[in-house]
Design goal:
Strands 4, 5, 6, 7 and 8 form a five-stranded antiparallel β-sheet that branches. Strands 1-9 form a two-stranded antiparallel sheet. The chain has a two-stranded parallel sheet with strand order 2-10. 20% of the residues are buried. It is of the alpha+beta class. The protein has ten helices and eleven strands. Helix 2 packs across helix 4 and helix 5 packs across helix 7. The longest helix has 34 residues. It has two domains: 215 residues, Trigger factor, domain 2 (Orthogonal Bundle); 96 residues, Chitinase A, domain 3.
């Protein structure tokens, strides 16, 4: 596992969205939040205009990715030599000192050339060969091979190539465009690609503006004190999640902490507390602004977000297990957060006009 010093929420948060840096939510309805936070300026904040550039290379890359996604697997003819990336269906028999060994033979095995599924030399030995050929591969097992009795042994594999299939990427031409899209000219299709890229970049740019404004709003907010119930909940939950992760990886808690560059439980506890305080602060600010500005969401919006989560495989039980809060609570804070972001941008002072190239 890669050693990375990270904020705890990034290490354990299992639901990823371009949203609140939090793994769950709390209800703050019973609090007078003015006793806990002093919210500074959040309206009229300055933010730079966005600039969007769409290049010909980006259009070409988008078209290439579309073509690759449309690739089909086709059987090659008998005169076509095997190349890297091909899938070859083979029968093979391996022998060491003239004798077969366990796991050294198979029939009808599909092997992707370049997958390194076999010992060195096996796949390379098939490159350039053709369907129907029989090949003898004289190879040697590596000294650190997983089966000890085969380590360093010479082996002969006799291979029969039954058939070869290859991913064929369609050509970019008018026929492809007409067969796969609603467009009748290459120009129309490429214009649609530019429009798609523009919308993607515009969404990203606007989200970046919102994130910047949110960061400023947080910086402008002073925490007077943290509600103990919510803060302790996150601290305890984060700690429990480390135990869950350690068990799932078959590691001790100590080893897991070390893999994330936490030198000790004390260091972990400090990061855990900071991370938990950040979450609580964010949730309090969201709730405060939403209440002050009368920000609400509809049942339809709530149902749509829940449906989106479920379409990604998250239901009530696994969300609560992963984030420590019921689905309804997570959705509540998430919807308020998105609407608060919308309000921050609407009320912001954008210092110029957006540019498009």
């Amino acid at each position: 596992m890669k050693k990375v010093k990270m904020v705890l929420s990034l290490a354990i948060c299992l639901i990823v969205s371009a949203s609140l840096v939090s793994c769950g939510s709390m209800s703050y309805d019973g609090y007078d939040l003015k006793e806990y936070i002093k919210v500074g300026k959040y309206k009229g904040l300055e933010v730079a205009p966005y600039a969007i550039s769409i290049t010909d290379d980006q259009v070409t890359a988008k078209i290439d990715s579309t073509l690759e996604a449309a690739a089909t697997s086709q059987e090659v003819d008998k005169d076509t030599a095997i190349a890297d990336g091909d899938v070859v269906n083979i029968d093979y028999v391996g022998k060491v000192n003239g004798k077969k060994f366990d796991g050294g033979s198979a029939k009808g095995y599909d092997l992707t050339i370049g997958s390194d599924a076999f010992i060195n030399g096996f796949e390379d030995g098939l490159i350039g060969k053709k369907t129907g050929e029989k090949v003898a591969l004289n190879l040697t097992f590596p000294d650190d091979y997983s089966t000890e009795k085969l380590q360093g042994k010479d082996v002969v594999f006799k291979v029969t190539i039954n058939l070869v299939t290859r991913e064929v990427v369609p050509e970019y031409n008018l026929e492809f465009v007409k067969n796969t899209t609603e467009y009748t000219t290459l120009g129309e299709y490429e214009d649609s690609i530019r429009e798609t890229l523009y919308k993607e970049k515009e969404t990203e740019a606007i989200n970046n503006q919102k994130t910047e404004l949110w960061s400023v709003a947080l910086d402008n907010t002073e925490v007077k004190k943290y509600p103990e119930k919510e803060l302790n909940h996150y601290i305890d939950f984060n700690s429990e999640q480390m135990d869950v992760m350690a068990e799932s990886y078959g590691m001790t808690r100590e080893d897991l902490l070390a893999s994330y560059d936490f030198g000790s439980e004390k260091e972990f506890a400090a990061v855990n507390e900071d991370s938990s305080k950040l979450r609580v602060k964010q949730e309090m600010v969201i709730t405060y602004i939403a209440n002050k500005e009368g920000i609400e969401y509809t049942d339809k919006e709530k149902e749509a977000l829940i449906a989106d989560f479920k379409s990604q495989g998250y239901d009530e039980s696994n969300i609560e297990a992963q984030v420590g809060r019921p689905l309804d609570e997570y959705v509540h804070i998430e919807l308020l957060y998105q609407k608060v972001l919308d309000m921050l941008l609407k009320e912001a002072n954008i210092t110029g006009l957006p540019t498009v190239e």
